[in-house]
Every structure is written in structure tokens, then in C-alpha cells.
Design goal:
469 residues; alpha/beta; Rossmann fold; pyruvate-formate lyase- activating enzyme; OB fold (Dihydrolipoamide Acetyltransferase, E2P); five-stranded mixed barrel; 22% strand; globular; binds 5'-deoxyadenosine; binds iron/sulfur cluster
Length: 469
């Protein structure tokens, strides 16, 4: 049994990571029969981990079922970015407890970010002894062995390492989308923004080698993928932990030269965004004009307390450069309101920033205290009521710009990667523009999986309507 601690999670790594290839113990291959249900919470990194988890479970012999009440094994891939993410998973655990009272053989497991929280593990040991296993983010590749141990020993297994392990390559993968593929380029984060739990739950920053990434991209091109989405908590730090001297700009250029039609990357920390990166992004048309650039706050005082390492002036210089150099660049962001002691003036600075940037998309949140992070200990004089009001006010402003940006596209022609038939609109297809806008449009089913030209005929806050040309 390995249990995580916040103290250990806070330590920085000095030694280089060893690359290892995933290998399933041949004795476990298709050893079990039964069904599984996997529930995924949180970000794209978790969604992609779930694609690996599904493949690992299927190598063990389990088959996926849609209804968790019909499964022999239920696994929750959890998120801990804000308190309500934890609450959702605990709510699900409540339902699973009832299910387990009726079906004693049901196996319930937890993985993902909550598995790395010291407090969550303490709660599981004290109050949730019926949970069969927990596997951490740093040793997800051990999932098949942990499940085998649960089945053979019938004892609770908790295998969570506070610190990242070596970098494991070649995990099996069952991708959800046949046209657009997630590709991890860097794991973890070293920024330690004061509100954020990610550096504790995902460990220190570790980049995959360019060779491993390019091999994966080549493979995806061969399989007919139209788009890769490069993933990392902070992709702009790519390569900094490696001794090879290459960075995100070099990686993007190499991938652009493969001629894959679309390349996206998320998430970018402004502090690590260099001019060299902007030049490469501007040079290649297959690097999408869509950048997720979280600002978090429009106030320099708040940014300082958040440990974001840039001022609003620096953010705006970067923002302006991207807009000037990359044609039609859409910029989206994340904003937190109600950070401890955020004043009305600080909040007004955030509104002012939004009015200047007119973001194409913005994810807005109320600050949530995460135990183990420095901001959780900061004094806070802002009431919940004020925080709610600020969020509402901010949402009104950001929504107005989503609509305005969409309206600006009326009558123009956009390139759309067609994902399938629309569930909401009969007879319509849906897809995404290169600026990540959702568009429903009238077209032929044979267009699915391709990039087609579409005329924009209607614009709403959250989506566009169109007609294929
Ligand atoms: N409270 C509220 N929002 C948070 N985020 C990260 N940590 C917290 C927190 N403790 C937001 C940030 C980040 C996004 C992924 O989630 O805006 O960019
Ligand atoms: Fe969290 Fe992002 Fe800051 Fe890293 S850069 S600590 S993931 S908010």
C-alpha cells in the first residue's frame, strides 16, 4: 500500500526521468470476463487518460457498458480542481455504495486527481472501506495489476505515489474520436500558482521526447486523423525539463511539417510564451488560430498573490502580438473571481481587461479553496454573495463578446472539421471551425471526418449555423 502526502508532493525533482514502455503482464491478458463502466470528470487530460484506461481494462478482458448499474466494475476518473468536482465524485460514490449493498461482487475503484489528495485517501481509509481500489495519477499504468490484486486477494488496494514515477510510453489507447486525437506532450506543472492543486495531483513537469511524440503523430496520420490536440497543464514549458535544448516552437514546427491538417495545443501559460513560438504559430497554416491563454485576473495585485509571474501589461503585450501576427487568431481564457481579498477595484480591472480582449471564449470560476495550496491559508474578506454576483456580472460581459465574435463571422466562409450528425438539430451535421467554434450546418453525411467549407448563416452565443458550399 502506498499513500500520498502533500508534503512529499511539494518537493521538486532533481533527477531526470527514465522512459519505460508499458507492458501488460501476459498472464493478465483477457484473464477476466465482465463489464466495466468508466466515469470521467474534469479536463481533457483526464479524458485522454480515460482513453488509456479503457484500453487497459479491455486488455484485461472487460467490456464497456453504458449503464453503470449493469457493470461488474465501476471506475471513477476524478478531478479535484474545485470543490464541486470533488463533491460530484463523492455524490456518485453514494450511489455506488447503495448498488454495492445489493451486489456485493461489484468492484469500485477511483483514479485521477482526487486519488492524489492526502485528505481524500484518509477519508477513504476511515469511512469508505468498501471502495475496492485507488490508483494515483503517477502510476496509472499499474491499473491492470491493481485490479488483478483486488480480484485475487479480495482486499482493498491503495496504490498512490506522492511523487511522479518514470515516464511510461506506449500505453494502449481506445480513442473516443476517430478524427481528432489527444496527444500528451508534457505531464504535470511546476508553476505552483497559489490557488492550484494541479502541481500536487499531477506532479512536476515532465516532457515526452520529441521522438516519442512524432512517432505517435505519424501513427495517427497513418490512421487517418485530421487533427491532433497537444495536451499539457502548461504546454509552453515543453522541453524545459529535458536536456535536448528543444522547446514548444521546435515541436510545433516539426508537427506542422508532417502536414497533418490541424494542430491545436492546450493550455498555454503566458509566462512561458516566447516570440519564437509566436513566429512558428504564425508561419504554418495547419497550426490552428486558436490559443487558450488563461489570464485568471485583470488586477496586478491579485495576479501577484496568485503567483502568476506576469503583469496585466505583459499579458496584453503578448495578446496584442498574437492578434497581430497570427491571422484571425481566436483567444480564449480562464478567469477566477473572488480570490481571497479581491476588492471591487480588482474586479473592475478584470472587467476592463475583458472589454479590451473581447475573448472568443472564457471559462469563469469562483475561487475554490484547495487544501494543501498556499491560497487556502490566505485571509478572505469577500462574502459568497459578492463572489456570486461578480461571477454573474462577469459572465454577462464575456457572453456578450462570444456573441459579437460569432456575429462577425456572418456571411463568411469557414473551414469545418466535421464530427458527425447533430443530436439537437435534425438533418444537420456538426463540427468545429479552426478557431474552435461549434457549427451546425446542412451538408452531406459523406462529409463526416473531413474538413469542408461552410458558409455561416446564423450566429448565437455558443454556436454558429451554416450551409456547406
Ligand atoms: N478555484 C477556482 N478555479 C480554479 N482553477 C484552478 N484552480 C482553481 C481554484 N482553486 C481554474 C483556473 C485554471 C482552470 C483550469 O481552473 O482558472 O486555469
Ligand atoms: Fe495550475 Fe495552470 Fe498554474 Fe500549473 S500553470 S499551477 S496547472 S493554474
Amino acid at each position: 500500500m502506498h499513500l500520498p502526502t502533500y508534503k512529499e508532493a511539494r518537493t521538486m525533482n532533481k533527477k531526470p526521468y527514465e522512459r519505460k514502455a508499458f507492458l501488460l503482464n501476459p498472464e493478465l491478458k483477457h484473464r477476466y470476463q465482465g463489464t466495466y463502466h468508466l466515469k470521467t470528470y474534469g479536463c481533457q487530460m483526464n479524458e485522454h487518460d480515460s482513453e488509456n484506461i479503457k484500453a487497459m481494462l479491455e486488455e484485461l478482458g472487460f467490456l464497456e457498458v453504458e449503464d453503470y448499474e449493469k457493470a461488474d466494475l465501476v471506475l471513477l476518473n476524478t478531478c479535484s480542481i474545485r470543490e464541486n468536482a470533488n463533491n460530484k465524485a463523492f455524490g456518485m460514490l453514494g450511489r455506488l455504495k447503495h448498488l454495492k449493498e445489493e451486489n456485493k461482487g461489484l468492484i469500485v475503484g477511483i483514479c485521477g486527481c482526487m486519488a492524489q489528495e492526502e485528505k481524500v485517501i484518509q477519508d477513504i481509509l476511515d469511512k469508505y472501506q468498501w471502495i475496492n481500489f485507488v490508483v494515483g495519477t503517477n502510476n496509472l499504468y499499474q491499473l491492470p495489476e491493481v485490479i488483478a490484486k483486488v480480484i485475487e486477494s479480495k482486499q482493498q488496494q491503495i496504490e498512490v505515489y506522492s511523487r511522479e514515477q518514470d515516464l511510461v510510453e506506449q500505453l494502449p489507447v481506445k480513442r473516443d474520436n476517430p478524427y481528432s486525437a489527444y496527444v500528451n506532450i508534457i505531464y504535470g506543472c511546476d508553476k505552483f500558482c497559489t490557488y492550484c492543486i494541479v502541481p500536487y495531483t499531477r506532479g512536476r513537469q515532465r516532457s515526452r521526447t520529441m521522438e516519442d511524440i512524432l512517432n505517435e503523430v505519424d501513427h495517427l496520420i497513418h490512421e487517418g486523423y485530421q487533427e491532433v490536440i497537444l495536451l499539457g497543464q502548461n504546454v509552453n514549458a515543453y522541453g524545459k525539463d529535458l536536456a535536448y535544448g528543444y522547446d514548444l516552437a521546435d515541436l510545433l514546427e516539426k508537427i506542422a511539417l508532417t502536414k497533418i491538417p490541424r494542430i491545436r495545443f492546450v493550455t498555454s501559460h503566458p509566462w512561458d510564451f516566447t516570440d519564437k513560438m509566436i513566429d512558428v504559430i504564425s508561419k504554418y497554416n495547419n497550426i490552428c488560430p486558436s490559443i487558450h491563454l488563461p489570464v485568471q485576473s485583470g488586477s496586478n495585485q491579485v495576479l501577484k498573490r496568485m503567483g502568476r509571474r506576469y503583469t496585466i501589461e505583459q499579458y496584453l503585450t503578448l495578446f496584442d502580438k498574437l492578434k497581430a501576427k497570427k491571422k484571425n487568431c481566436a483567444i480564449s481564457t480562464d478567469i477566477i473571481v473572488g480570490f481571497p481579498n479581491e476588492t471591487e477595484e480588482d474586479f473592475m480591472d478584470t472587467l476592463k481587461l475583458v472589454e479590451y480582449c473581447k475573448f472568443d471564449n472564457a471559462f469563469t470560476f469562483i475561487f475554490s479553496k484547495r487544501e494543501g495550496t498556499p491560497a487556502a491559508k490566505m485571509k478572505d474578506n469577500v462574502s459568497d454573495e459578492i463572489k456570486e454576483k461578480r461571477l454573474q456580472q462577469l459572465n454577462e460581459v464575456v457572453n456578450q463578446y462570444f456573441l459579437e465574435n460569432n456575429q462577425a463571422l456572418l456571411g463568411t466562409t469557414v473551414d469545418v472539421l466535421v464530427m458527425g450528425t447533430s443530436e439537437k438539430k435534425d438533418g444537420y451535421l456538426y463540427g468545429y471551425t479552426d478557431t474552435m467554434k461549434l457549427i451546425n450546418f446542412i451538408g452531406e453525411k459523406s462529409m463526416i471526418g473531413k474538413i469542408v467549407r461552410v458558409e455561416v448563416i446564423d450566429a448565437k452565443t455558443w454556436s454558429l449555423d451554416g450551409r456547406a458550399l
